[in-house]
Amino acid sequence: MTSTLHEPNVRTLLAKLFAAAAKDEELPAREVPKDVKGRSDALADVYMPVSEAGGRLLYALTRAVKPTTVVEFGTSYGISTLHLAAAVKDNGVGHVYGTELSATKVTAARANLAAAGLTDRVTILAGDALDTLAGVPGPIGLLLLDGWKELTLPVLRLLEPRLAPGALVVADDITLPSMRPYLDHVRDPASGYLGVEFPVEDGMEISCRL
Length: 210
Fold this sequence. Notes:
Layout: H1 8-21, H2 36-42, H3 52-65, E1 69-73, H4 79-91, E2 95-100, H5 103-115, E3 122-126, H6 129-132, E4 140-145, H7 152-159, E5 163-172, H8 180-186, E6 193-198, E7 204-209
Parallel strand pairs: 1-2, 1-4, 2-3, 4-5
Antiparallel strand pairs: 5-7, 6-7
């Protein structure tokens, strides 16, 4: 069986998106508000994606776990979402719920999913994740945390009651200092996880819900 990631339209789209994301560092410096909404609007043109290796890892994990519900915090332009959606399509089961605060990015992510023919596999929820994810159905088999880092732990705590036993929780950019509260939580044996740090770019923490 071939992967949806290898389909010409999906492969071409991902190459285009990764090339555009590579130019993030060339964007001029700007004033960024401290509040999450203002920050999201100010950085609406910045992709901030997972790495190519990270995307392939997400695809492989989703294929292996075969979750019926996948949740993504921080959709951005939909690069990671495309990998997750391709995996649930190839599994023949599952649905991805993404959330994104920037209206610009919501529109772009939906367009990218449509271009890849994966719209029916994903629901993009527009707004504050602590509101939009409150109604996502469980059990959640895979959770990707790649939004604003200070919200990573609050989003996890919101969704913990709906995590399936054995669910995988994947957090990106764990080398950032703002991820310390999250890492302290999932690495504490009393929290009910067992995880490993995976060396892709700024690092991913892959935690299994015990």
